[in-house]
Write a structure and sequence with these properties.
The protein is built from seven helices and eight strands, in the order ββαααβββαββααβα. It is an alpha+beta fold and 190 residues long. A hairpin with a 2-residue loop joins strand 1 (6-13) and strand 2 (16-23). The longest helix is centred in the N-terminal third of the chain and has 17 residues, at 48-64.
């Protein structure tokens, strides 16, 4: 196999086989400096190649995720396969270079909990970065919020919020149950 060769791969899925081409040559634009320079180039749309990678990742996570029954307070149960989390940073706008290490630390916490995930960073209209995650393990929203806010507090990102509101526990999390895999893919790939 030469350095710049495209090979054909086959992936076994629960509903069939998927055949696709994989480029084995050098990749351009993969440096760390590009990760933090995206806000300047961010157009609000996902390119077709990124959309394909995202859809493939979502499809694989769906296939890996088992349907489980989760108990609610009061004894009722509900089916759970995937959750959709949005993590935000309250207060003043921070550089993505400052927020991203905190998020990476949060991802390490998720891995310790045995959570498999897919994430995507996005910029709000005000310029603040926030993160969307699809996760395959049920975690009570209070535990997620506490883990995220603990990291924000340790980095000093909640100091101005605490002075204004009198506590270090902002609503920096939105959790949704994924009811439709199709609607989830459409939302993330918009």
């Amino acid at each position: 196999m030469s350095v710049n060769e495209t090979i054909e791969l086959v992936q076994v899925r629960w509903d069939g086989l998927m055949v696709y081409k994989y480029y084995t040559g050098p990749r351009k634009g993969r440096g760390k400096e590009l990760l933090f320079d995206r806000q300047k180039r961010y157009s609000g749309t996902v390119k077709s190649a990124a959309k394909k990678r995202m859809m493939k990742s979502i499809d694989l996570l769906i296939q890996l995720s088992k349907l489980t029954m989760v108990a609610r307070p009061g004894g009722k149960h509900f089916p759970f396969r995937l959750g959709f989390w949005t993590l935000t940073v309250p207060g003043q706008v921070r550089k993505a270079t400052d927020v991203h290490p905190i998020f990476k630390n949060f991802l390490a916490w998720m891995r310790r909990q045995g959570i498999q995930y897919i994430w995507k960073a996005e910029y709000q209209k005000r310029g603040q970065v926030h993160y969307h995650l699809i996760c395959n393990k049920y975690v009570p929203w209070v535990d997620i919020r506490d883990a995220w806010n603990k990291r924000l507090k340790k980095s000093g990102f909640l100091d101005s919020y605490a002075r204004k509101c009198g506590h270090f526990n902002p609503n920096s999390l939105d959790v949704r149950d994924v009811r439709s895999n199709k609607s989830l893919s459409i939302y993330l790939a918009k």
